[in-house]
C-alpha cells in the first residue's frame, strides 16, 4: 500500500510540474555558443581543440537537444507547457509574463505584477551582445539546423 501511495504522489507531482520553453534564434545560438567556447573555454583548456571540433560539437549538441526536447515534450500534460520565442519575451516582457501565468494557470500574477514591472524597468538600458552573422554562420546553421528554423519560423 505504501508503494502505491508513493507512486501516486510521484505521478501527482509530475503531472503538476509546469514548463517554460524559451526558443532562441538558431543563428544567435550558434554565434553565442561559439563565442563562449572561443573566449571562455579555450583559455581554460587542458588540451587543444580545433575550430572544426568546436563547430562540430555545437552542431551535434544543439541537434541532439532539439530532437530530445521534441520527443520528451509529448510527456508533458496539456496546459503544463508554454513555448515562447526569447525575442518576443525580450520585446514584451510584462505581457509575455502574464501570458505565461495564464497559460500555465499560475495564480498570483496581479499581486506579483508591481515587482515584475520593477524588475523589468531595472533591466532597461542593459546592452546585450549584437551579432552580425557572417556567411559561414549562415551556411552552417541553414545546412545543419534548418529543422529549427522552419519549426520556429526564424529567418535572417
Structural class category: mainly alpha
- Portion in strands: 5-15%
| Low-pLDDT stretches | 1-6
Number of helices: 8
Q: Tally of extended strands?
A: 2
Overall mean pLDDT stands at: 88
Q: Please give the alpha-carbon distance between the first and last residues.
A: 58 Å
**Mind summarizing the main beta sheet?**
2 strands, parallel
Layout of strands and helices, then pairs:
Layout: H1 2-16, E1 19-23, H2 26-41, H3 51-72, E2 81-85, H4 86-91, H5 93-103, H6 109-122, H7 135-144, H8 146-152
Parallel strand pairs: 1-2
Account of the 3D structure:
Helix content is 65%, strand content 6%. The chain has 8 helices and 2 strands. The chain has helices at residues 2-16, 26-41, 51-72, 86-91, 93-103, 109-122, 135-144, 146-152, and strands at 19-23, 81-85. Strands 1-2 form a two-stranded parallel ribbon. Helix 5 (93-103) packs antiparallel against helix 6 (109-122).
Features:
two-stranded parallel ribbon; 65% helix; disordered N terminus
Could you give a short description of this structure?
By secondary structure, the chain is mainly α.
Amino acid at each position: 500500500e505504501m508503494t502505491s501511495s508513493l507512486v501516486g504522489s510521484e505521478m501527482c507531482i509530475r503531472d503538476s510540474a509546469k514548463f517554460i520553453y524559451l526558443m532562441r534564434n538558431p543563428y544567435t545560438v550558434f554565434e553565442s555558443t561559439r563565442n563562449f567556447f572561443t573566449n571562455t573555454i579555450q583559455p581554460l583548456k587542458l588540451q587543444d581543440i580545433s575550430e572544426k571540433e568546436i563547430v562540430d560539437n555545437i552542431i551535434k549538441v544543439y541537434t541532439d537537444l532539439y530532437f530530445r526536447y521534441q520527443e520528451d515534450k509529448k510527456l508533458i500534460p496539456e496546459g503544463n507547457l508554454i513555448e515562447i520565442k526569447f525575442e518576443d519575451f525580450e520585446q514584451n516582457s510584462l505581457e509575455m509574463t502574464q501570458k505565461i501565468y495564464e497559460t500555465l494557470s499560475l495564480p498570483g500574477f496581479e499581486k506579483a505584477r508591481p515587482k515584475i514591472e520593477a524588475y523589468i524597468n531595472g533591466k532597461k538600458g542593459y546592452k546585450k551582445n549584437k551579432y552580425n552573422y557572417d556567411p559561414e554562420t549562415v551556411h552552417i546553421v541553414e545546412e545543419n539546423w534548418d529543422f529549427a528554423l522552419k519549426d520556429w519560423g526564424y529567418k535572417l
